[in-house]
Amino acid sequence: MMASNVLRMLGFAFLLAVGGCAFDQDAASRVHLGPGSEYRPIPVIDDRSDISAVRSGSGLGDAAAPSTANQTVADGPVALRALLSRSEPDKLHPQRLLLRVDYSATAKAPVDRPRLSIALVIDRSGSMAEDRKLLYALAAARWVVDNMADTDMLSIVAFGDQAIVLSAAGRVVNKPFLFHRLDEISPQGSTNLSAGLLEGLAQVGGAGSTAQVKHVLLLTDGLANRGETNPTILRGIAERARVQGIGISTLGVGTQFNESLLADIAAAAGGRYTYVKTAEQIPSAFKDELHGLLQPVAQNVSVEVTLAGGAIGKVYGQLLDQPTRSYKLAVGDLRATESGFLLAELEPSGVGDGKSVQVDVRLVFDDPQAGGRVGRLARVRSPDDGSLSEDQGVTLVAAILDALERADAALRGLDAERYGQARVLFERLHERAREQAIRTRDQQLLNQAFVLKHFMGELAAAEREGLLHGHREARDKLAKESHYLRYLLTHHRPQL
User: Fold this and answer.
1) Residue 110 confidence (pLDDT)
2) CA angle at 159 for the pair 156 and 162, rounded to the nearest 5°
3) How many other CB atoms are found less than 10 A from the CB of residue 188?
């Protein structure tokens, strides 16, 4: 139980640390730590007179005062903000800068519910019998069927050694028949993930569909060991689906699946990857995904950063082979209330004497309500004399991310020394973040400080009980959780 709480707390700490959370007086007073957990109160900044300024650091959705190092573009369904800050002093990199790019859905969910075409692609391999995973998956599928309209299209595909079409794509007009077909699924065979994926895409992409949202929901608990298993080829399949206007969301349950593969497939197709820790959480994961599909605000969203006068040395949550002058983040579809951000370290080629860094941030998306492709540009520039100031909100978030990455590495490697160093760092960061949040009335940062404090307590309790040196299954769960946290670093999610 404690190990589970540690994973939930680590996950929630990352969720708060890596994205702009919209302030809500009621939501901000509680933290949901996962299924079965109680809400815990968070200190709340009571004065609402400047709520807009704390919604995402300093108000992503509001017009910013003109500034060469800070620009907000807030017209349209998606707001964009770019902010340059000097990083904290570093002897090895004294001139490093930080760039934070926020994007946030400002439009409400569509008034008219979009027509859906969904393929449920369910793993029926023998391992799905364990822990009643298949039973929970079928319960989730029944919920999806029950909540679709008769104008929607649905297909049901099961895969083991091969893919089986239980119900071809058609309007949801005979739900008892669909329930009956789901009852016929039993666990057997291996995991031919590619066959299930390809069949699901064929069903959704078939002729005659007038759906506004076309999506494949794929759930598996194991490694792809039949059919096409090459990750590059599977990613290519997902990329082609996206070009055809079909999204893919993947859900991995348990500890035996390939989390990198599922995350890559989802990212390539503009969907979501969800790590489902236990079988009992499968229905809620399906519900969240279906609910999100009904609220598209922007589709095919991408953020591209281009730098003049330096190079991008690091993008938090991403691996860069070498410094680069441009970086593109494929965000996918953005739903109502969702937001996220990109945080990067910049390496200037020179400062002072008329030299500066200029960054162009381009946000591109398709507007499903107005129609057509939309582009936004935010341009920020450091002062020519090198006098860029430090934004403590940005540098603190960077420090928190660094600390969480160190803790994650320590937990994965069962490295007691590195874990101890991370705990000391957490203690310092917690106090700094709390003081800064209160001084600047930044509710988001206060939330981060609060969760960081609880995370420290959970880790200490786990250490006392010896859970950081558990058996293989516990280590596998940690590996899945660690990967999921890194995935969340660069992917959007609902604002709290």
Assistant:
1) 77
2) 125
3) 13
Q: Which domain holds residue 170?
A: 116-294
pLDDT tens for 350-400 read 654 557 899 999 999 988 888 889 999 999 999 887 788 888 888 888 887
pTM attached to this predicted model: 0.72
Q: What percent of the chain has pLDDT over 90?
A: 40
Q: How many CB atoms lie within 10 A of CB 217?
A: 26
| pLDDT band of 203, cuts 50, 70, 90 | very high
Distance CA 294, CA 104 (A): 17
309, 451: one domain: yes
Rounded to an integer, what is the distance from CA 20 to the centroid of its chain? 12
Distances (CA, A) of 229 to 77, 258, 480: 39, 11, 20
Is pLDDT at 60 greater than 80 in this prediction? Answer: no
Strand blocks (E) in 140-282: 153-159, 163-171, 213-220, 246-253, 273-276
The whole-number average pLDDT for the span 263-277 is 90
Q: What is the DSSP letter of 132?
A: G
**pLDDT for 359:** 95
Position 114 pLDDT exceeds 90:
no
Asked if 339 and 458 sit in the same domain, the reply is yes
Same domain for 323 and 196: no
Structure tokens at 74: 């807030």
Q: How many CA atoms lie within 13 A of 425 on its CB side?
A: 17
Split at pLDDT 50, 70, 90, the class of 490 is: low
The residues near 481 (Cβ < 8 Å, ≥ 6 apart) are: 7, 10, 11, 275, 277
Give the integer Cα–Cα distance in Å for 138 and 159. Answer: 13
Give the end of a domain, one of 243, 259, 294: 294
Structure confidence at residue 66 as a pLDDT band (50, 70, 90): very low
Strands 78-86 and 70-73: antiparallel
The phi and psi torsions of 107 (rounded to 5 degrees) equal -80, 155
56 and 136 within one domain: no
CATH number at residue 301: 2.60.40.1230
Contacts of 303 (CB under 8 A, 6+ apart): 80, 101, 103, 328, 329, 331, 342, 361, 362, 363
- The CA distance from 170 to 234, in Å, is 26
Rounded alpha-carbon distances, angstroms, from residue 115 to 211, 212, 213, 214, 329: 5, 5, 6, 9, 28
